[in-house]
Amino acid sequence: VADTGLGLVTAPCDAVLEAAAGNPLALRELAASLTAEERAGHRPLPAPLRPAGRLANVLARRIERLPQSARAAMVVAAAGDGANLVEIRAACGRLGAAADALAPAQDAGLVTLGDGRVAFSHPLVRSAAYHLVARPSERRSAHHALAECSAPDRAAWHLADASDGPDDAVAQALHDAALRAVERR
């Protein structure tokens, strides 16, 4: 596997390039935030990538200035990876946030709502909301809420992300999702 010049092998490099979305500072900061095992491709990368450095802190501060319900909705949207807006709004409702909770984030230019989806203004906004603004318990709650509002295969992945340890029911749900994926191919 070839080194890319950033100290990354090809697969992690592709993920860093996508997350940086053309921002050279983000490219350097994201690459530097990876562990040696992640850079070498021996350990899977977190999704979204953990942001690092000045740019990530600036984005986190912008998100933290939003009302609490908008911050919670940003975490749900980040955990849902821009999933359809109906799922995100339903999950927000399960967490006590109003259907229009993302409106302040849209007004601040952090997200765009349209075509039934949530689009982050930059991949690092998603990363900052997920890793820097949300506490682990908030991320788990967001994934639980999304699991309750998602189709079975997506729900299995959200349940896995919400787990804080081994769970036989989650393992079975992932196994079932894998079997359905094989059947679809």
Characterization of the model:
This protein has 185 residues and is mainly α. It has 11 helices and 2 strands. It starts with 9 loop residues before the first helix and ends with a helix. The mean pLDDT is 86.
Percent helix among the residues?
55-70%
Uncertain runs: none
Overall 3D geometry?
globular
Strands in their spatial order, largest beta sheet: 1-2
| Number of helical stretches of at least 4 residues | 11
Sheet of most strands: 2 strands, antiparallel
Cα distance, first to last residue? 28 Å
- Please state the oligomeric state of the protein chains shown: single chain
Radius of gyration: 17 Å
Mean pLDDT: 86
Beta-strand content? under 5%
Which H/E pattern describes the elements? HHHHHHHEEHHHH
DSSP E strands, number: 2
Q: Class by helix and strand content?
A: mainly alpha
Quick gist of this model?
This protein has 185 residues and is mainly alpha-helical.
